[in-house]
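the two lines:
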Amino acid sequence: MGQGGEPRRAQAYDGELGAAVARAQGGDEAAFAVAYRIVQPGLLGYLRGIVGDDAEDVASDAWLEIARDLGRFQGDGAGFRGWTATIARHRALDHLRRLRVRPRSAALEQDVLDLPGPRSTHDEVLENLSTERALALVRGLPRDQAEAVLLRVVVGLDGPSAARVLGKRPGAVRTAAHRGLKRLARQLGVEGVTDDGSRTLGEST
Amino acid sequence: MGERQDDRGAADGRRRCVHPGATASGTAGTADRAGLEELLALVLRDPGGGPVDGSEGEKRAVAAFRAARDTGAHRARTRRRDDWRQQRQRRAARSLRATLTVAVASLALGGVAVAAIGTVGSSDDVSAARPTVRASASAAAPGGHATAGPADPASAPALPARPATAKDTAARCRAYEKAGGKGRAMEATARQRLIAAAGGEDQVGAYCAHVTATASPPGRTARGTTPAPGTARAKARSEGTDGSPGAAASNGTQGKGQDGGQGNGQSDAAKPGGGKGP
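prediction for all of em together
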């Protein structure tokens, strides 16, 4: 399951990303732009989950550092995701430290808790789930769970890479991601799908 | 993660009731979770922004890239946190590094061992050369050896052990001399050993003089020819101090003097006549 879904999809780009990074390290700025376009959406999604509306600024800072330190990096496309996520995370934590603001507020969870009916199907959830709501849900999670979910699902890291970004043991991160996803599923009412919609979902993978 | 999922499925009684068999519930949970992950990725990965905003940040990033490239920042060294190669590659690189480290360490240790062999060998040479010198000296002056003083019999049996202990004893003697025979100044253990070696506290002076004399080879040859041991000692002592630049010799210069003495020992064994000179 951990390797299913998004990480596998991210892997499809990882070959392209690795090649782009290698060319960029050779000095090709067009290749660097390609790498940016592949990595930025996930990075921004992750940062939104941590710093909210300041994600763009933090991402911009992170990219300055990424652009500067690119020569130091060693690894493939998947490694580049992890490396950039680590840099982005450090920038985000710096940002939070500067602001002295908690990344989450309790008020968010109130908006979040108007859940759909427990019987809604996967498609209905998908149709109804806005970016804002999904973000609010994720940010409503405990911090470690939110980060684990975002790194795994949105950035597309595998377990060990996510653990390395967070500076934790892979087992702890796996547990956190699992709990986070479970809680999200419950809040979204997707869990009810397990009983009557498992056939459709099974086909969708 | 699959096994985990199965475990959770097994723990979750409700699901098991619906789907007979742990694997069935496991795959259902997996599919469910995968769908949720996909959903979240879809919604969260490309939030709001749009391509225009992205290209703005992209321009900035590329400009930073260009600046870094042109100033040579991209030639910086890879730090540990920049190494995101696959675990296996990294482990291979690490084990290569470990192997190299071990190799270098063993070479260094081996070098020390070889050096130690050399030291022992050279001091063996000295002690091997010594009896011949002594024999010739006593042959030249039959009475010389007998008049060598009370400390001489003590040093005669000690001769075979000399390579190991001579330096220590000499060092203790120097420390003793420096401390002027006052107890505290010298480390108690070393002092006790010295007294034990000398065979009594009042013997230490004589013993040390003898040790110093035998440690520096000119004294050794001189002892054989000169009838009075006292002058031999005095001679050896004066030679010892002559070797060091100042009268109040520091530890460092004393150490040099000792090394010089050893060096002389080897060369002196080859040409004993040099020792007989002034």
